[in-house]
């Protein structure tokens, strides 16, 4: 996975073909489970500052005020 920062302060990332093939090989239920596990981990691991920044990004604003 390659991380890219953008001008607004957010980020994006890219995955390689092998990573895509691995995900593609999962059943739909396995994919949903994987996505939910990542979502839960992210929510548990984030700091209050990260939560504020994520909310700003959801609103289309820059990461920092």
Keywords:
12% strand, extended, 65 residues, alpha+beta, single chain, 57% helix
Count of the domains:
1
With helices defined by DSSP (H or I, 4 residues minimum), what is the helix count?
A: 3
Radius of gyration: 15 Å
Structural class: alpha+beta
Q: Tell me, rounded to a whole number, the average pLDDT.
A: 88
Oligomeric form: single chain
Order of strands, widest sheet? 1-2
Outline the low-pLDDT stretches.
none
Let me know the number of strands. 2
Strand and helix order: EEHHH
Percentage of β-strand residues: 5-15%
Question: How helix-rich are the residues, as a percent range?
Answer: 55-70%
Shape: extended
Distance between the termini: 28 Å
Helices and strands in order, then pairings?
Blueprint: E1 2-5, E2 11-14, H1 17-24, H2 28-45, H3 48-58
Antiparallel strand pairs: 1-2
What would your notes on this structure say?
The chain has 65 residues and is an alpha+beta fold. It has one domain (2-58). It contains 3 helices and 2 strands. It has helices spanning 17-24, 28-45, 48-58, and strands at 2-5, 11-14. It has a two-stranded antiparallel sheet with strand order 1-2. A hairpin with a 5-residue loop joins β1 and β2 (11-14). It is extended and about 40 Å long.
């Amino acid at each position: 996975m390659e991380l890219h920062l953008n001008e607004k302060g957010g980020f994006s990332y890219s995955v390689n073909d092998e990573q895509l093939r691995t995900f593609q090989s999962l059943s739909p239920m396995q994919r949903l489970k994987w996505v939910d596990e990542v979502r839960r981990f992210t929510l548990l691991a984030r700091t209050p500052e990260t939560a504020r920044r994520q909310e700003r990004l959801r609103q289309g604003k820059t990461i920092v005020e």
